[in-house]
Amino acid sequence: MRRNLFPTLAAIGLGLAVLTAGLLFLHGIFLREREGGQRALEAQRRALEQYARQALADALRRALEEASVRIELAEVNPLLADTEVLLFRAGQQRLPRTASPREDDRMPAQALHAALEAQGPLALAAQEEPGSPWAERLLLMGHFLEAQRAGGRPAIERTFREWLTHRSSFVLPVVKETTGALWLLERFQAEGRPEPTLMQALLRDGLQGLSGSRIEGVQRTLLERQEAFERSDFTFLRGRIARLAELTHVAFTDFEARAEAGPGERVALVLPLEEPQLRADGWYVAPSGHEGARGVRVSASGLVEKVRQEMRERGLLEEEDGLTVSQADTSTPVSLLTVFLDSPRLATAATALESGYRLKALLLGCSGALALALIGLAVLAHERKVRFVALRSEFISTVSHELRTPLSAIRVMAETLERRVGGTPGAGNYPSRIISEADALGRLVENILTYNRLEKGRWETRREQVPLEALIQRVVEDTGAQHTAPVALKPNGLSGIRVLGDAELLRMLFSNLVSNACRYTARSPVELRVEARQDGATVVSLSDNGVGIPRESWETVFEDFRRLRQEGLPAQGGSGLGLAICRRIMSLHGGSLRIAASSPEGTTFELTFPSA
C-alpha cells in the first residue's frame, strides 16, 4: 500500500513545494509593496519637512531684513524702542541698551543745578581754574544771560552762538554738560522767547555745530549716557527735561517711556558667529562684520504657523496637519533646524498600508493552512481509497478462489446427473442448464480473478506469436456454445497474421468482446466481422450487430464495474469488468483499445497491437 501511496505523496509534496514557493513569492511582493509604500510616505514627509524648514529659514531672514532699518535708527537714536532688535559691534552689545544709572549718594547734577540757581554761572566761573573749558563755559553762559536781560537781539544771538560753538569744540564731563545746558535752556525759556525749532534741536533732535561736531539733544544724551549719572540725579534731570519740553511744546512722551523702561536685556552671545542661529530666548541672530551680529526677536511658533498657512494655501498640507520646530536649549544654527510634520493624513495612510499588509499576510497564511488541510484530506482520502481497493481486491480474490471449488463440484455432479438421467422422461434439460449456469458463473469468477491479478500487476505474461485467425475462431466456437443465439463469424484479412502476446490473455480479451456481442443484441444470428491489417502495427477491427453504445458512454464503458442498461433488452448478467479487463490486457501488451464507431446497428472496436 505504501508503494501505491508513493506517487501520490510525491505529487502532493511537489505541489506543496510549488504552493509554498508561490506563497513566499506573494509574501515577498506584499512585503515589497508595504516597504515601497512606507518609503513613499516617508519621502513625502521628508520633502514637506524640508520645504517647511526652508520656508522657516526664509521667514527668519526676511524678519531680520525688515528690522535692519529699525536697528540702524535705534543705534543712533536712543529715543526709539530697541527691545525687539539686537546689535553687537566689536564684540560689545549696542542694542538693546543695557546701561542704567549708578547707585551713589553724591548727586552731583542736583548740586550743580542748585548752585547755578543760587549763585549764577559767573560766580561759579570765578571759583574754577581760570582758562579751563568748564570756566569758559560758565562765563559764556553768564554773558548770554546778561545779553538776554539787556534785551539786545544781536547780543543774544552772538552770545548764544558762542556758547554753541564752545559746546561743539570742547567735550566736558557729561554730568556738567547736560546739567549746565538744561539750566541754561530753562533760563532761556523762562526769561525769553526761544525759537521752537531751536528748542526742538537742543532738547531732542540735536544739531550740527559750527566746528563740524554734532551737539546732541539733552533727552538723547541722558538716555544714551545713563551709566554716567547717579540714579537720583537721573530722575531729577529726567523730570526737569520733561517739564521743559512740555513748556516749549517739544515731544517727550517717548523720552519718558524709554527712561521708565529701564535697561534692556543683556544677551550672552558668543562671537564671532559662523552662521545665523535661532536662540531659545527668541532671538534670531546673524553675523554682521567683524565680531558683530544683528538680530531680531521673533516668535518661532508664530513663524511656523505662518509657514503652515502658506503650505495649506498651496495645497501642500491639509487642515489638520501641524508643524513644530525643534530647538536646542541655547541656540541652534539655522542649517540644523528641524521641522517636524504632524500629519494625521500620512499617519492614516501608513496605518492603512500596514493593515493592508497584515490582512494580505493573514490571507496568505489562511490559504497556506487551507492548502495544508486540503492536502491532508487528499492524502487521507487517497490512503482510504488505496486501502479500500486493497481490501476489495483481497475480498474479490478470496471469494473468487472460494467459489472455484464448489463450482467445479457442481459442474461435475451436473455432468454425472446428465449422463444418468439424460433422456429420462421428466428430467428435461435441467442438468444441461445447471452445467451452463455453472460455466457462466465460472467465467464470471475467472474474469474477477483475472481483473484482480491485472490490477495488482501479478500476471506474468508469456509472450509468443499467436495466430489471430485460429484464436478468434476458437473463441467464437467456445462462446457460441454458451449462448442460445448462433454466432456468424465473417473474418477478413486474418489469414497469416500473428501478434506477439500472451495466448491466455488474448483468448480472454476476444472472449469478453464476443461474449458482450452475444449478450447485448436482439438479433439472431449474432454477426461478427473481424478485419485485420498490418502496417508496422497490427490493427484489428471487431464489429457486431448489437444495440450499440451511446456516444457519451464510449469511454465510461471501459471503467471498472461499469454496465450499460439498454432499453428493449432483458437484464444481463455479468460483473461489469469485461471491457475494463480488455483495455488492461491491451495496455499490458503495449497496445490500445477504443470504440471506433457505434450505432443502433452495432459497435466496432478497434484494437491496435504494436509491431513485433
Q: Can you summarize this structure?
A:
Keywords: Kinase, Membrane, Phosphoprotein, Transferase, Transmembrane, Transmembrane helix, Two-component regulatory system. The protein is an alpha+beta fold and 612 residues long.
Secondary structure: elements and pairs:
Blueprint: H1 2-76, E1 85-89, E2 92-95, H2 108-119, H3 121-127, H4 133-150, H5 153-169, H6 174-191, H7 196-205, E3 207-208, E4 214-215, H8 218-224, H9 231-247, H10 253-261, E5 277-279, E6 283-287, E7 293-297, H11 300-313, E8 322-326, E9 331-333, E10 338-342, H12 344-421, H13 430-456, E11 463-467, H14 468-480, E12 487-492, E13 498-502, H15 503-519, E14 526-535, E15 537-543, H16 578-588, E16 592-599, E17 602-609
Describe this structure in words.
It is built from 16 helices and 17 strands. With 612 residues, it is α+β, with helices and mostly antiparallel strands. Helix 1 (2-76) packs antiparallel against helix 12 and helix 4 (133-150) packs antiparallel against helix 5 (153-169). Among the domains are: 110-257; 459-609, Histidine kinase-like ATPase, C-terminal domain (Heat Shock Protein 90), CATH 3.30.565.10. The protein has a six-stranded antiparallel β-sheet with strand order 2-1-7-6-5-9. Strands 12-14-15-17-16 form a five-stranded mixed β-sheet. A two-stranded antiparallel ribbon has the order 3-4. The longest helix is centred in the middle third of the chain and has 78 residues, at 344-421. The chain has helices at residues 2-76, 108-119, 121-127, 133-150, 153-169, 174-191, 196-205, 218-224, 231-247, 253-261, 300-313, 344-421, 430-456, 468-480, 503-519, 578-588, and strands spanning 85-89, 92-95, 207-208, 214-215, 277-279, 283-287, 293-297, 322-326, 331-333, 338-342, 463-467, 487-492, 498-502, 526-535, 537-543, 592-599, 602-609.
